[in-house]
Amino acid sequence: MSESIEDRVRNLVEGNEEVDFAPFGEGTSDAWILKTEEELSIRLPESYKWWLKNFAGGEVALKEIFSIYEQDPKLPGGDIVYQHKLRNDDNVGKLYIMSGGHHEAYFELSSSNEGEFCVIENCDGNIKTHKTFLLFLESLIELYTG
């Protein structure tokens, strides 16, 4: 039997010094996820919500993945609502989940499929499309940690 994507990601995260997430199971509350969805007027992808609920947020090889800071008002930084409001005028149809240097990624909001959005990743002009957030996350961790 093949391993689920959730199990593969969890295994990649555990004991990996290049991944700095909260301990598994100490994630974001349903109430904050709902509040964030209301602020964004977007239903967040199920795989992204799984990651938020289980890992809360963090970095892969010092590249922050935008999450929910669970604070009002929103603080500058990697809070997904704050980042979306920063880019709202220039990036209609996109919800950024990572940005910095020559590597960025966003949800393509027009690609809704079974509770998911595709993740478009651009690393130095090399563009990849991932069907779900967890497939993106798996690829990102493997890229930076071998």
How is this structure best summarized?
It contains 5 helices and 7 strands. The protein has 146 residues and is an alpha+beta fold.
List keywords for this structure.
single chain; 146 residues; SMI1/KNR4-like; four-stranded antiparallel sheet; 5 helices; globular
Walk me through what this model shows:
- With 146 residues, the protein is of the alpha+beta class.
- It has one domain: SMI1/KNR4-like, CATH 3.40.1580.10.
- Helix content is 35%, strand content 27%.
- It has a 4-stranded antiparallel β-sheet with strand order 4-5-6-7. Strands 1-2-3 form a 3-stranded antiparallel β-sheet.
- Helix 1 runs parallel beside helix 5 (133-145).
- The chain is globular.
- The model has no long low-confidence stretch (mean pLDDT 91).
Q: Order of strands side by side in the largest beta sheet?
A: 4-5-6-7
| N-end to C-end Cα span | 24 Å
Query: What gross morphology would you assign?
Result: globular
Helix and strand pattern: HEHHEEHEEEEH
The description of the largest β-sheet is: 4 strands, antiparallel
Which spans have pLDDT < 50 for at least 5 consecutive residues? none
SSE map:
Layout: H1 5-13, E1 19-21, H2 30-40, H3 46-55, E2 58-60, E3 63-65, H4 80-87, E4 94-100, E5 103-113, E6 116-123, E7 126-130, H5 133-145
Antiparallel strand pairs: 1-2, 2-3, 4-5, 5-6, 6-7
Helix pairs in contact: 1-5
